[in-house]
Known about the structure:
- The structure is a single chain.
- The protein is of the alpha/beta class.
- It is 41% helix and 17% strand.
- The chain has helices at 33-44, 56-68, 83-97, 120-148, 169-189, and strands at 2-3, 24-28, 48-52, 72-75, 102-105, 151-156, 194-200, 204-205, 220-221.
- The strands form two sheets. The protein has a seven-stranded mixed β-sheet with strand order 1-7-6-5-2-3-4, sandwiched between helices. Strands 8-9 form a two-stranded parallel ribbon.
- α2 links the parallel β3 and β4.
- 42% of the residues are buried.
Amino acid sequence: MSDDAGGADGVPEGGGSIGRRARRAIITGASSGIGRELAIELARRGWRTALTARNAEALEQTAAAVRSAGGEALVVPGDVTRPEDLERAVRTALEAWGGIDLAVANAGQGFPTPVAHLDLPAATALMRTNFEGTLNLLAAVVPHMIERRSGQFVGIASLAGWRGLPGTGVYSASKAAMQALLEAARVELAPHGVAVTKINPGFIRTAMTAKNRFPMPFLMDV
């Protein structure tokens, strides 16, 4: 897993500019996989989490797990490709808690996109979810962080973004776009007290990778 370190406002326990008060996060794609497990782990560390994804029923299940782990959860169903949905999710968290310390752009799709038999609508939808979803969360939450001069924005990209992988070129392109955006944002936002972290997992055992019918080297549990 590749990681560009952020700052004191990030996931590690204790210290930093946030201190000991309950910290507040918003996570997209929180209904399953990395997003769900991250929300539960943050709950164990005393975080409050705003959860958003399209599947409202699955979000409620994540929220129940968060509360069982000792955390506080807000459920705000929405589609990351709709800027107004993420604006609503951010606004809901701000109204409830007064601030957001951590925003995680995790929502994503992944499936084969062979160029010789390209399904253009599906490929476009993948790009919109993975890249535009990140861009939409960035636009919704970063002005608030700049105003407070505090916060951390995290994007769950992929090692696939380092090279165009045959058969999944659109997925690779979407993650490469995320990486370029986050690398630029990290430099631009540092003077405003906002940290940006790019996380590049390899193959993770989730519902998305369960569909794969090819060898997945170094497959990890979520």
